[in-house]
Write a structure and sequence with these properties.
heterotrimer, A mainly beta (177), B mainly beta (358), C mainly beta (840), A: 177 residues, mainly beta, 3 helices, disordered N terminus, B: 358 residues, two-stranded antiparallel sheet, globular
Chain lengths: 177, 358, 840
Amino acid sequence: MKNKFKIFIVCIFASVNCSAEMASINDSELSEVTGQSGVYLSGEVSINEQGGPLADSYFGACTDSAKTCGARLSFQTQESGGWFVIDDIKGSIAFEGLTFQVREINSGFGGDGALFNKAVLEIGMPESIRMNDFEFTLATGSSSRPSDVGYKQVDFMTVEMSGELTLEGNLLVFPTP
Amino acid sequence: MRLITSRIVKLTLLSVLLPLNYVSAEMTSLSDNDLSEVDGAGIGLVMDDFVFSHGNDIANDKVFKISGITDSAGAPVSINVNQLYIASSGSNNGTTLDPVNLGRLSNPYEIDLLDGDDVDVGLPGEAVLQFAAPTKVATGTGYSCIDPTLGANSGDCSSRPADTLTSDGLWENGERPDMGLELEITTGTSGPKNLNFNVKSAVFDGSYLRLWGDDDNKKMAAEFRLNFYTPELQISTCSQVNQACTSSVKMQDFQLELALGTTFQPLYIGADNVTGGLTVEISKITHEYISNLNAGVSDGTANGDAAAAFFTDYYTNDNYRSNIVIGKLDIGGTDLGSAKVEGMLIQYLDVKFRDLAP
Amino acid sequence: MFNIMELKNFLKLGTTLLTILFSYQASAEMKAMTDEFLSGVSGQSGLTIDAEIHAEIGEFAYFDDGKGLALQGVRLSSAQDKAQTADFRFKIDILESGAISWGFSSENISRFEIEEIRFVDTPGLTPLVGHKSMGGFFLDFDIEGNITVNNMQSPGVTGGVYDIDFSIRDGRLGYRTNGNELFLDGMSLDVNSQGTVLGVNPAGELTLALPNFLAELKVEAMRFSDNPNNHGVTADVDSLAVLPSYGSIWANLDLNANLTIKSGGASGSQGMTINADSVINRADVAWGDDTDWNEAGAWVGALGVTGSVDLVNLTVDVLDDPDVGVNNNGVGLALAFERLDASFHIQDFVLGETKQNIDAYVINGLTPVKSIGGFDINLSLADGIYNTDPLTNIVYVQAGGNSNAGYQGLRLDTQLNIIGSANESNFVYTEDGSSLMFSGLEAYVDGDITVDVTAAGNISGTDYYDGLRVGFEDLAFGYRVEGYRVAKSLENSADNVANLKTKDLQAAHSIAGLGFSPSMEGTLNGHITLGPGGNKGQEGITINSDVYITDGSMAKFIQDDGNGVWLSGLNYDVHLRDMMLDVTSEGLSIYEGESWSKMDVTDFRIGDKNSGASFGRLILESYTVGSESIISAGGAGQVCIGGIGGDSATCEADNGRWEDRGAQGITIATTKFFKDNIDSEGKRNRITWETGRAGEGTSAVSNGTGMQLVFDNFTTNDGNDLTDTYGFRSDYNIDVSSTRVLKKSNGPDSNGVSGNKGDEKIMNADGTYSYVAPGAITAADIANRPVGIAVRTRTHFKELDFERINLANPNPGGEVSTLLYGLKLQNFDITTDITATPLD
């Protein structure tokens, strides 16, 4: 494997037509050639599939159609103003092959790699990622808690996703000086 | 591509003034948003070999819907997203998905903390949170923002088109994705209608969102610049099966440079604490020494001079103006030539959304 | 073989010793027996001696090259009243085999005490009151037993062979400093050592061999007293209340050991060198809380322990500490060794088990118990280098302890080094047939550890708390593991460890819930004080602690190429008040009265530990009150990943994957209450990211000069701003178990094994692996899926409220502005189930 890798690098710099054995190896395969470290993660993330711990005038069990059982995130951009809301977040995401490694990049990327020559945190997107009734609602509200007296909420839209997603690639995270 | 709709939109007091004097600019370098001096420290993000695609496909157990929207009669509008994709150029409206890179190692997407005292940020005493796309580079050292066929040193965008020839060989991925949002909208009793937005080789270089705290007004303030360049933006009502149909609007050599909010006229986005609706405002342009001006001319005092200089810059600086340029507009096969809206300057904006239903 | 002459000499010796001890109280009956009289002694008649002993020795000192270790105020008397005698009955018999049987039994509870242990230059000088001392020790005992001196020699050893068998009841073993004492109360000790050899070998070394050493220790309660009037009593003499207890202790031991002592130490011409090796055939150790030694109460214990300890050239000298004059260092008992190899295999580590079940398990190892699994601990201590510092193994045991606490106490100037570059030292966790090795452990400590028994109060500006105080003074420390190795476990623990060593090394990472970091270094100051009493019932441990780590670094993720995610330039302060440990039927229960901490990371680096690129500074401040954690045996059990279903069939019908993680494993359930800030006491919940500092990216970076994003004052509440009873709950289930690993792309991987995208990785019996197409997977393949670390985390809370998100500009004229006036997370119940396996 190491010899193949050396030949490949020589091929790049020599701009020579390399032998047919060396089918174009894209960056993700290269990362598997050099990256012997790192972890491979698989599993699932499930949000409020059985509801959440709150029970009041707004939140309740998932079986109760009058109540919301998803999680809620809200933030306020103006003092004594209203709140931006991501509401009713629930569902699950099952994935296999989320990888995590610290990788030194000093080649590839159309020439950028050699100039970059530093380490990055590489988070590899899962081989398969499946959503199960994952949904959330974007809205704005008049006060911090939906259980407040006189609370008004304007919903923009609800997004629902299920099924197998096509998501490939690696997210590279690194500090910018 | 973000689709924002709401139950109703009731616009109050929207006023966008086209100033009497404005500077027209060349098509290839409309504004000089040169951010290369601003060096914020922070986190760089690059997507390598990226492909994303999801769509509503009941036969394959895939669901991707947007709901919660009602029409003016109160009937629910159901929107199926047939496909949302981000892939490399040459995707043929999302049917062929090859990997693309987003951002470059030397010029990534960034989340930074900027020093407001920096003259290029212009907010003394503040710390600024910035979300930025790759920055533009000096004109002539980068790639053409619109035309992917021109090679290196043809423009000021750093994101490279797919299959660019570099010193390291052929760079297949490029940093310009094809993106698309294909919707199927069903309202009430009428059948489903398609609405598709497909973009080729999209470039966002030079876009940023800067956020800081305006403690005097007790609001979060923002400065938003959106640059969007594409050789072709297509809006069509074609069905999912026949994406290349003729009922489409094609905008070629499309350039959008949107400026919302500045350091002295920030964009305030909030929510109303009574109706719960979204509010977007840009305060009226003013200056602390505006009273020292007579019909736009200084009264001779130092304060008046400062105010005059400020307003002169305000009206002449391209950084504060928005432009939309379409190189060639093609509707259903008919070529309508080019169209431009240039030099828009937002002097005041106040938008409030609220629910019409009681 | 004895001859009568030797027998006579022995009896003379014995009688002479007894005479010395009785010198002040001997009764007139004691006359030296004549040889002729003794020659007639044999068989059944024997000799019975009733002795009432009250002995005091002002000073007993051991001198080594001019420096002496002195035991002062040595006394043998009655435990009740030190003015009264310790009463014994001795029975001496000669058995048919010619062996001499020396039986002894107490007539009352005796106390052997050493009041002070000091270092002296000249023997016999009256010590100055307040001159530094290690403190006092005492042993109370009611002993009954027998030593049989066999009529034979052990081959090669000039000496004797003894059969020892004794029991101590109503015992106490105590340590006193500055009027406070910590002691084992209600202690029973049974010792049986047949064929003990004590003598001199041909090399001139004193030899002790214990070929069949059996012992059982039971301690009813370990108690603490802060009343100087109490001296080894169960109830306080003034208040008459029973003294608070840490709990009960039980230990069981079966070992073989050999020990040799030769003259000459590490320095000078005098001193001692000790070599020892022992094989532990079985040991069990447990701590019980509020127990009746039967069905009531709960125990934590390491059961079925086997192993070995091998000590090479331990030298004993009395020397000046090299740091003499610095930090209260002076003369000490220098214990240095060339090498110590210790291996322990713990078959089952139980949490929250009854003594009745533990006893059943000791008899029959198949008895089901609440076990988190088994452990193997392999440590090699020897000279070595950690980073660039050369280290050795030496402890200077000195007198004085913490300087403000009083003149008594222990100061241990310690340098210890664990080597692991060839995987000599490692740690293995085995549960439900799978093992995880923390491979290549290297560690060191270098600095002062002080031991005192302290009482709550403030002395000379330092706060003290009730209990055993372990202090750290400029203690440099470091540890790292090179990575993880995982495999299915083998029955025999030695084979299992050897097998794991052959496995691929995978990146080591923090394991959620355990708070384990693959590497950590720094300088430690502060203390941990372990006091008596817990939160539930009467017994337990209360911890008060203030720990400061400076100039440190911590890794969150390390790969075998040395790259990782590092928190470097770490300054970490942790304060615990009234953290109470109890054992309940659920397991180990931890209640935190009040805890606050500040973790200030100067550089959050990726890549190399010292030169990796930095994201900037990260400060994590935490303040919680009344938080609780319960650690229990058992992991996630059976889970359905990616679907919903209570059994394998329904799970798979819902497109899920069914995994059975077994009955063992670790479950940690935590509830934290994040409280509102108290700025004057430095207590706040806040996360700060600072970047763009002066000197950013260099080693001369200046904290406080960069722009900051601050998530300020986050608190929990029940969603109504009135109560906070639910808190922020995280439940972790940690298992080592198999999972599905899919190949991400076509072609060969980094180990050269080929496969197609979507193929499953299946392990072969010899430890290699191959990729199998999904359609070709058999049931046997499923059983051979790769082993990984499976952590199921459930985080749930009613409301987490961030008071402000701020942006701060530190420049002159700069200000702190608010970006978000509020951020609320409500009604969250997130479960993540993630298994980590090596990336190929």
